[in-house]
Amino acid sequence: MRLKLYLTMALLAARQPYDIRNIPARTWAQVLGLPEPELNGARRIGDALDFLAGIKLIRVAGGRGRPRNVLLRSPSGNGTPYRRDFGRYISLPLGFWANEWIYRLTGSSVALLLVLREMRSNRPPTDPPWLTTDQKRRYGLSEATWTRATKELADNGLLSIRRRPQGRDFDHRRLRNTYWVHTERLDDPASPPAAPPQE
User: Were 18 and a residue from 13, 35, 102, 144 both cysteine, which residue would form a disulfide, CB within 3.0 to 4.6 Å?
Assistant: First the structure.
């Protein structure tokens, strides 16, 4: 939920001074589809704002119980002012929000979607589409999270995973997973969750 909140704030704070004013926590909770937005949802938003401020991605003003103003800080987490021309970045289509993918996907899947987009950005299509273990570790996602999130993205048509042999003809050939992200799918409505089986 923290990641979804941060992405939504970055979408809204589109121009200098990159701030968001007077949005109550319950409104953020409603925007992000949290249950009980007036109580538990608002509390979770307050906790998320505190967390994001603690890692210097935002600065907040105002106390709990009234709307808190948010000022974006550098995505590097060093507390310096936010800039749109930060350098290397990735983007998501507006369909991620407009077509309700932000509600449909878990936070882990959103994180992996961003990781895979970043890992494939600025690489020619001829580069190998597999990821090394070291590349995966750089992002701090556990193997369990990676497995669950790749399944969720694939089940929603956002990711194709294939097995491809690596190595030359006379070498020992390892099979590696290849990952292809389909961000164009975000321009389509998110499918509703499958109904539970009838007993």
Answer: 13
Residue range 89-132, pLDDT digits in tens: 778 899 999 999 998 999 999 999 998 888 766 565 566 555 66
Query: Rounded distance, CA 73 to CA 9, Å?
Result: 11
Q: Mark 178-194 as b/e (b = at least 16 C-beta within 10 Å).
A: ebebebebbeeebeeee
| Spatial distance between the Cα atoms of 185 and 96, rounded to a whole number of angstroms | 9
Q: Please tell me the distance from the alpha carbon of residue 35 to that of residue 12, in angstroms, as a whole number.
A: 22
pTM: 0.81
Q: Which two tokens stand for residue 130?
A: 């597999």
Distance between CA atoms of 62 and 21, rounded to whole angstroms? 10
Token pair, residue 95, equals 């369909």
Q: In the beta sheet, which residues pair with residue 169?
A: none
Distance CA 10, CA 4 (A): 10
Beta partners for 160? Answer: 180
SS (H, E, C) 117-137: HHHHCCCCCCCCCECCHHHHH
